[in-house]
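hi! just following up on the protien thing from before. the input was this:
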Amino acid sequence: MNQSVVVMGGSFNPPTLAHLKMLQRSMDLAEAERGFFVPVSFPYLKRKMMKAGAGHLCLPDETRLRMLKEMAASDPRIGLDTGEMGSVFADTRGTMERVQNRFPGARIFYAAGADKLGILETFEKWGFFPGYGMILVSRGGEGIRETLMDHPRLSAHVSSILFTELPGGLEAVSSTRVRAHLFDPEAVADCLHPGVLALMRELKREDFPEEIPDFRGEYAFLSNDYPCAVTWDGLSFPCVTSAWIALGFEEAEARRRISVMAPGKAKQKYGNMLSGRRDEAEKAVMENVVRRKFLQHPELVRKLRDTGNRVLMDGRMKDREWGFNTVTWTGGNRLGKVLMEIRRET
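and the predicted 3d structure came back as:
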């Protein structure tokens, strides 16, 4: 008999008993010798949670891995594959190829919830079938087989799909429910493996502050491009960016010319200067301009205070040191740090 291996990808934020039982049920159905949890990367998880309006409730990679290891330790057949943690995006195709290369003679199955019809359609487009198998796990017989039989493309691959149900008693178990009690894990102890429960008891609310990931809409006032007069040496500039560009010139006439220029035009004409001003003295000038913007406008200070203890990040700024890339979740976020320092001081 050929060997079978089951792969189960996911956010595991945090992992629950439903994840464990789902993988075990899938392995039993496929008569698999091995099964692997494949967690997504933190940047991918962060983007997903931000869309759901709970971006701050993201467990770091290290924490999720520790929790998954605790669950995997309860079944010697189960292991972890961390290959997707090095990718900004979910890479199921790469994962399946990687596991297949590791077990060249095995039939590799991907286990997913039966509600993931969209995943099946995506997989079908990149040629998932018939090279790999799928296991769909439902929470109570949603009739997914019948739905697939009526699908114009997926119906041809039903023979590559196994169907099963989650064991009884787990219908209400979900990561969403657990996250609602992330800092009160005893309330959802029935959803958690004992090892995961112990690790959740270590979580502190203050380690998961809410974030403002871009400066637009009601938070546009935090942006350096926000139309707000900034006075420097007797000249009034239309925004921080204009003042910053002007201060790259020693000549008074050049500064005066930029002070009456539309910010967009100034950036277009002189913006190439921004990337070249990297020494600490120039950075200090930028910080000083940002401070003046707020100190010269008390109403902006009040709005800044109203952001509370949220982490400020200019996700739209392309500068890798001053901005923050919310796709890769990397960047120096120097502007955000300056703003948070001003908030603490005022």
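The chain has two domains: 4-207, 211-345.
Residues 4-207 form a domain with the Rossmann fold fold (CATH 3.40.50.620).
cheers
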